[in-house]
C-alpha cells in the first residue's frame, strides 16, 4: 500500500508539474481538491488520464462516486487496488 | 424480463371484422386489447357486445375520438402496467393477413429490442390512388430516416417493444391521428431501434372504406414536413448510422430489406444530378417556408442574429423578414449540400483551398490533428470529400441533450472505420485517453467551439461576439491542453457554386497554467470568437445556430462583463 501511495504521489507531482511541492510533502490523507492541495477539475482529468495509463485500470467518468475516489492519495490507492482486483476477477 | 406479447386493435367505425380478428388473435394465444376510440353510441355498444365477457379480451374506451395514435398510446400504457413486453398492432378493418401473426411474434421474440413490422405485398384489390399515396409516404419515410431499407410505414401490422416505444413517445410530440404509424416508426429508427421486416399480403375487402380522409392528408403532410426539418439537423448522424448499419447485416431479416429500397433516395439523387441544386432548392422552398412561418423560436433567433450582424456591418441593409427567410433557405441549401457531398455529388474539384499548406501538412504528416470548427458553413462537406481520398478516422465530438438515444448511435460509430461520434458533455479520463490514442495514430478530433455545454454548471467563457458578450464552451481548450497537441481552426463556406476551405493554425500548444486557467481559457474563447467573426463576415447567412445564441437556456454574463444594454448605449453615443 505504501509503495502504491508513493507512486501516486510522484505521478501527481510529475503530471501536474507541481514545482513548489515535493512528492514526499503530500500527506496521503490530505484533500487533493478544494482545500488542501487546491487542485481543480482539469487537474483531476489529467490525473485520471495518467492513472489509467500507468495502472491500466478504467476510470468511468459517469461514476457518481468519482469525486470520493479522487479525494486523497489514500483514497486513490484504495480505488486503484479495488479496480485492479475487479479486473483480475473479470479475467 | 420474460417475453410477454399482447395485441391491440384500435377501433373506429370498423366493427364488421372485429369479432373474427379477436377470435384469430385468441387462437394465437394473445391477450387482446380493443380500444374503442370514441365511437358513436351504437358502434360503441356493438364493440361492447363483441368484447365483454370474452376471456383474454380487454376493452378500453376513449370518450372522444382521439385518433389511431392516441388509441395505440392508451393501449401501450395499459400494456406497460400489465407487464406486457411487446404489443402487436392490428388494424380493425380486416386488411391484415393474420396467418402471419405467429411469425411476427416469433421475430419479436428473437429480437426483443426491435420493432417488427410487416411489409405489405398488395394484391390487385388496392385502389390505385391509395397505392400512390402509400408510395409517397414511403418516399418521405426514406428521406426522413435516410433509410435504405424499405418498410411500409403505413402498414400498421407490427409489434412494438412496449417500454422503448413509450420512452420514444414521451420524448417527442408525436402525431396522434393517422400520421402516427409513420412517425412512430421514424422516431424509433432515429432512436436506433432496429426495424425488422416481414413481407405480408394485404387485401382490400370489398365494401370497406378507409378512415384515411382529407383531414388526415393535411396532418400527414404537416408531420412529414416537421420530420423533414428535424432530419436536416440530424442528417450527419443519420448518414453515419446508415453507414455503420451497412456493415451490420446480421440484424436484417433475411437480407430482403435491401431489395429495391433505394427508390426514395435514388430519386433525390437523380433530381439533384439532373436538375441541380437550384431546382432541388425550389422543391425545398415550400417546406422551408412552412418552418419559417411556424418556427417562431427559430425565426426570432434568426432575426436576433441578423440584427447584430447588421449592426456589426456584415449586412448591407437592415434585415427584415425577407433576409430571415433567406437565412432559413441558406440552411436548407446547406442540408442539400451535405446530402450531395455524402452521395458523391460534390467532389474535390468543387472545393477551393484544399492545397492550403497547413491543410496539406496536417493531411500528409501522418500526425492527427485537433480541429476546432463551428456551425458556420458546412464543415461536413470537407469530411465527405476527405473520406473519399483519405482513410484516416475522424472523431467528432458532439453535444446532445439526449444522451440515451445518442449513445446507441455512438456505439455503432465505434464499429465504423471512418467516423466516430463522442459526446462532449461526458468527457472524462476514458474519453481523453481514447482521443489521445486516436490522435497519436494519425486520426483527427473535431470539436465545435460555438455550442455551450447542455448540462447545468457547464464550463463557459464569455467573449464579445458581434458587439455583445456571448457564452463559449471551455471544453475544447481544456481538452486540447490535455491532448498536448496543435489546434487548428477550420471552416468550409459556400461562395456561389463553389466551396472554400479555411484552415489555419489556432494554437501550437494550449497550456493552462494553474492559478491562471480561467483567464487563459477566456483568452482562447475570445480568440475563437474573433476568428469566427472574421469568417462570418465572408458569409453572414451561413450561420446555423437557430437559437438565442447570446443567452442560451437563460445563461447570463457575469457582472463584470458589459451587459447588452450598456453595449448598445456605447454604440449610440459613439
Care to describe what's here?
The complex is a heterodimer of chains A (about 90) and B (about 575). With about 90 residues, chain A is mostly helical. Chain A has one domain (about 1-90): ACP-like (Non-ribosomal Peptide Synthetase Peptidyl Carrier Protein, Chain A), CATH 1.10.1200.10. Chain A has four helices and no strands. Chain A is globular. The model of chain A has no long low-confidence stretch (mean pLDDT about 80). With about 575 residues, chain B is of the alpha/beta class. Chain B has three domains: about 5-230, Spore Coat Polysaccharide Biosynthesis Protein SpsA, Chain A (Alpha-Beta Complex), CATH 3.90.550; about 260-345, no CATH class; about 345-574, no CATH class. Chain B is built from 18 helices and 16 strands. Chain B has helices at about 20-25, 40-50, 70-80, 100-110, 130-145, 160-170, 180-190, 215-245, 265-295, 295-310, 320-340, 355-365, 380-390, 405-415, 430-440, 475-485, 515-540, 565-574; strands at about 5-10, 30-35, 55-60, 85-90, 115-120, 160, 195-200, 350, 370-375, 395-400, 420-425, 445-450, 460-465, 470-475, 485-495, 500-505. Classes of the chains: A mainly alpha (about 90), B alpha/beta (about 575). At the A-B interface, helix 2 of A face helix 15 and helix 16 of B.
Concise synopsis of the structure shown:
The complex is a heterodimer of chains A (91) and B (574). Chain A has 91 residues and is mainly alpha-helical.
Amino acid at each position: 500500500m505504501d509503495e502504491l501511495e508513493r507512486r501516486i504521489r510522484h505521478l501527481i507531482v510529475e503530471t501536474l508539474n507541481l514545482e513548489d511541492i515535493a512528492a514526499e510533502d503530500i500527506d496521503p490523507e490530505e484533500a487533493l481538491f478544494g482545500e488542501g492541495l487546491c487542485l481543480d477539475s482539469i487537474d483531476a482529468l489529467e490525473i485520471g488520464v495518467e492513472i489509467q495509463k500507468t495502472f491500466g485500470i478504467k476510470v468511468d467518468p459517469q461514476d457518481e462516486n468519482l469525486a470520493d475516489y479522487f479525494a486523497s492519495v489514500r483514497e486513490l490507492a484504495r480505488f486503484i487496488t479495488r479496480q485492479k482486483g475487479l479486473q483480475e476477477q473479470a479475467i | 424480463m420474460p417475453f410477454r406479447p399482447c395485441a391491440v386493435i384500435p377501433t373506429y367505425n370498423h366493427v364488421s371484422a372485429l369479432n373474427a380478428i379477436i377470435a384469430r388473435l385468441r387462437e394465437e394465444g394473445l391477450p387482446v386489447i380493443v380500444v374503442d376510440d370514441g365511437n358513436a353510441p351504437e358502434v360503441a355498444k356493438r364493440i361492447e357486445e363483441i368484447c365483454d365477457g370474452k376471456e383474454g379480451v380487454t376493452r378500453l374506451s376513449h370518450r372522444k375520438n382521439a385518433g389511431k395514435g392516441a388509441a395505440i398510446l392508451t393501449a401501450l400504457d395499459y400494456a406497460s402496467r400489465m407487464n406486457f413486453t411487446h404489443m402487436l398492432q392490428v388494424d380493425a378493418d380486416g386488411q391484415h393477413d393474420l396467418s402471419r401473426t405467429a411469425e411476427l411474434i416469433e421475430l419479436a421474440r428473437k429480437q426483443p429490442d426491435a420493432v417488427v413490422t410487416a411489409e405489405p405485398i398488395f394484391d390487385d384489390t388496392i385502389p390505385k390512388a391509395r397505392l400512390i399515396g402509400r408510395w409517397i409516404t414511403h418516399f418521405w419515410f426514406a428521406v426522413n430516416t435516410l433509410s435504405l431499407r424499405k418498410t411500409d410505414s403505413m402498414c400498421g401490422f407490427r409489434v412494438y417493444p412496449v417500454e422503448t416505444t413509450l420512452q420514444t413517445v414521451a420524448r417527442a410530440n408525436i402525431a396522434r391521428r393517422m400520421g402516427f404509424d409513420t412517425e412512430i416508426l421514424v422516431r424509433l429508427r432515429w432512436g436506433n431501434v432496429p426495424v425488422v421486416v416481414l413481407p405480408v399480403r394485404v387485401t382490400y375487402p370489398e365494401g370497406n372504406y378507409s378512415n384515411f380522409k382529407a383531414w388526415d392528408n393535411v396532418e400527414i403532410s404537416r408531420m412529414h414536413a416537421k420530420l423533414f426539418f428535424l432530419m436536416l439537423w440530424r442528417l450527419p448522424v443519420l448518414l453515419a448510422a446508415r453507414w455503420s448499419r451497412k456493415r451490420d447485416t446480421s440484424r436484417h431479416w433475411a437480407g430482403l430489406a435491401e431489395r429495391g429500397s433505394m427508390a426514395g433516395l435514388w430519386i433525390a439523387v437523380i433530381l439533384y444530378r439532373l436538375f441541380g441544386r437550384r431546382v432541388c432548392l425550389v422543391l425545398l422552398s415550400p417546406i422551408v417556408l412552412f418552418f419559417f412561418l411556424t418556427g417562431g423560436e427559430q425565426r426570432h433567433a434568426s432575426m436576433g442574429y441578423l440584427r447584430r450582424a447588421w449592426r456589426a456591418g456584415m449586412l448591407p441593409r437592415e434585415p427584415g423578414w425577407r433576409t430571415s427567410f433567406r437565412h432559413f433557405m441558406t440552411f436548407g441549401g446547406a442540408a442539400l449540400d451535405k446530402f450531395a457531398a455524402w452521395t458523391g455529388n460534390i467532389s474535390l474539384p468543387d472545393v477551393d483551398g484544399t492545397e492550403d499548406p497547413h491543410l496539406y501538412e496536417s493531411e500528409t504528416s501522418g500526425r492527427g490533428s485537433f480541429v476546432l470548427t463551428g456551425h458556420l458553413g458546412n464543415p461536413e462537406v470537407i469530411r465527405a470529400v476527405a473520406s473519399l481520398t483519405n482513410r484516416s478516422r475522424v472523431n467528432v465530438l458532439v453535444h446532445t441533450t439526449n444522451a440515451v438515444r445518442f449513445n446507441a448511435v455512438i456505439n455503432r460509430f465505434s464499429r465504423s472505420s471512418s467516423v466516430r461520434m463522442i459526446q462532449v458533455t461526458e468527457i472524462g479520463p476514458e474519453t481523453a485517453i481514447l482521443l489521445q490514442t486516436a490522435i497519436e495514430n494519425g486520426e483527427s478530433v473535431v470539436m465545435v467551439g460555438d455550442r455551450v455545454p447542455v448540462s447545468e454548471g457547464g464550463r463557459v467563457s464569455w467573449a464579445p461576439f458581434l458587439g455583445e458578450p456571448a457564452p463559449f464552451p471551455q471544453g475544447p481548450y481544456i481538452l486540447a491542453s490535455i491532448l498536448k497537441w496543435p489546434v487548428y481552426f477550420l471552416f468550409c463556406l459556400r461562395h456561389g457554386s463553389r466551396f472554400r476551405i479555411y484552415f489555419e493554425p489556432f494554437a501550437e500548444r494550449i497550456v493552462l497554467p494553474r492559478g491562471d486557467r480561467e483567464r487563459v481559457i477566456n483568452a482562447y474563447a475570445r480568440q475563437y470568437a474573433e476568428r469566427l467573426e472574421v469568417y462570418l463576415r465572408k458569409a453572414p447567412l451561413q450561420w446555423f445556430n437557430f437559437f438565442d445564441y447570446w443567452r442560451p437556456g437563460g445563461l447570463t454574463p457575469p457582472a463584470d462583463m458589459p451587459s447588452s444594454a450598456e453595449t448598445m448605449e456605447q454604440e449610440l453615443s459613439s
